[in-house]
Every structure is written in C-alpha cells, then in structure tokens.
Amino acid sequence: MPVRERLRAAGARSWYIGAASGLVWQSILVVSVVSLDLPVLSKVLGLLLLAVLYAVFLLLGPVIWNESVRVRLMAIGAFWAASCLLFPLIGPIAIWMWLLVVSLAAFTNLPPRLAVGISVLVILVQVAVGASVAFIIGLLFAPVVTAVTAATLIGLGLISRSNLSLRVANEEIARLAVVEERARFSRDLHDVLGHSLTVVTMKSELARRLVTIDPAKAELEIADIERLTRSALADLRLAVSNYRETTVDAELVAAKTALAAAGIQSHLPESVPAIDPRQQGVFAWVLREGVTNVIRHSGATACWVTIDHRSLTVADDGRGPGATLTDAAVPGNGLRGLRERSAAAAAQLLVGQSPQGGFQLVVRGAA
After folding, report:
1. What is the pTM of this model?
2. Between the CA of residue 306 and those of 115, 206, 268, 323, what are the distances in Å?
3. How many distinct helices (H) and strands (E) make up the chain?
4. Which fold has domain 264-367?
5. Span 16-55, pLDDT tens digits
6. Which of 34, 89, 197, 269 is the most exposed place for a label (fewest CB within 10 A)?
7. Where does residue 179 rank: exposed (0-12), middle (13-18), buried (19+ CB within 10 A)?
8. Under the phi-then-psi rule, with left for phi > 0, alpha for psi from -120 to 50, and beta for the rest, what region is 81?
C-alpha cells in the first residue's frame, strides 16, 4: 500500500489522536531546552531536530503498522538512534524524547514481549544516563514516567488487540450465520418445490393420458394440479417468511395423494402416535422426501410408511440402494439436507435396503 494511503487509512486517525496526546508530554522537554543555559545555536538546532522527530513520530505509526516485525523493529531502532543526536545539542535531558520510543513499541502492533523488552531497555538506558550525571531530579523522573507510560500503552494495546480479535470473530460468526441461513433456505426450497413439482409432473402425465379416453377424470386431475400448484406457491411464500411448519399428519395426506397419482400402492398408518415436538418437523421432512424419492427414482410398485413415537420409516420394493446414483443421493441435494436436519434435531438418519428389496429411509429420534 502506498505511503499516502497508509497515512489516510481507517486506523490512522486513532493513531494521530493518541500520538498528539503523547506529544503533550514533550512540552516538558521543549520548555527545558528553551530555559537551559545553552549556546543559541545548540538551542535552535535542538529545537529544529525535536520538531523533525515529532513529525516523524506522528507519521511513522501508520506507515509501519502493517510491515513485518523486523521492519517495525528497525524503524523503531532508527528513530531511537536519531533521537540520540539530541545529546550533543541539549545534553542528557534528551532522554525525555525516549517516551516516544516506548509509544512506538506499544502502538505499532508489535508482539507484547517485544514491546515490553524495548520498554525495559529504554528505561534501563535512561537510568544509566541519569546515574552518569548524578541523578538530576528531572532525569530521575524520566524513567518513572517512561515506565508508567509503557505499562499504560502496552495495556491499552493489548485491549485494542483483543477488541480487534473479538470484532473479527463476530464478523466471522455473522458470515457463518448467513451461510447457514442460505443453506437452510436452500434445503427448504428443495424440500418444498421438489415434492410438489414431482406430484404435479405425475398428475400432468396422467391428465395427458386421460384427456382423450376419460375427459371428466382428466379434468379432475387438472383441478388437482391447480390445487397442488397453489399449495406449493403458498408453501414457498411461507418458506420465504420463515413461518412454514410441517407435520407428519399433513405429510401423510399428501403422500397418499402423490403415491396414488403415480400409480404406486401405498401402505400408510391410519393414525400417528405422539411424536416429540422437537422432532415432529424432521419426521415430516423425511416422510416428504422419502415419498418423493419413491415416486421419482425407485421404480417401485408399492410404498410402506411405518411410524412410532421414536422413528419413521419409508420403504419401497423398487430398485434399492444398489441402483445407479440419482440426484437425491448426490451430496448437496435431498438426502444431504435430511441428514443436516436430522443432526440439528438430535436424530439419526439411516438409508439402506428395505425388507422388500427396495430402498429404505429411516429417521430415529433421541431416546
């Protein structure tokens, strides 16, 4: 990223505000330089160098923020070395400038151990410089202020990093929630339209055959097709609104109609036992998808549905699981959606060969 863009990046403004606040402490150093009994040239050059270093400090953070750790360490080291040029001009009071070194270490996204290490090194050098001039009170105060500043800024940096990680995690959770919702809606759409359109197709074929030999019955089939399409449209609208609910009783009625339209003999229970409300939905979806697959893929002549309070089975006497894979068995379609629904409802979905030699689909709820 070009330097100009880095200086205008989203996080740069926060750095400028924090850096400007840090420069307030430097007023102590500026006032001290002005008040010291130094040659005029040394004062002027010292103040000019301070101004340059302050400007570099203000701009350096955003520039090196996204660089490698090595580059950031080199930049901080170069800034520290440049600040040492103040010593010949203004003397040991230049150690106050090193507050900015620990600020850079704390707020340029260095690993915490490196930021602490740099801060400790700066403080030790400050103490050594102060000791060399018999601990002038101002020089003694500098390591204390630097230590407090380093601890505060490193702590704030850790909090900022934690907040950033939390924000990234929340964004990822939101993204995954969207993905899951899309997958759920895709399953619902497949389950709603797949079943309804299969029945409509079967009835349309039947009506086409009857139109010349039994127009009255063909008209009844066409009326039934109209009813089914209206029902499918209503289901689709409810799915979009997320208010659609399915029940085993309703699906049994639909299964009887669909199997009859396909010319498949149905063996369905006359009543439905009590089913755990948490698993009512997945049982209904398995019944719908199972009957749809019998009609579309099995080549069966008969279908059996058995239900108890813990399980539901859809079986047929068709080609069975050894037949060539169909769309329903391809991951990403009906059976995959049923597996996901079953897992979400703490139920188990099983597929295999039925006692009649065809295909069998079983869903078992938790005990």
Report:
1. 0.49
2. 68, 28, 7, 23
3. 12, 5
4. Heat Shock Protein 90 (3.30.565)
5. 877 887 788 788 788 888 888 888 898 899 999 999 999 9
6. 34
7. exposed
8. alpha
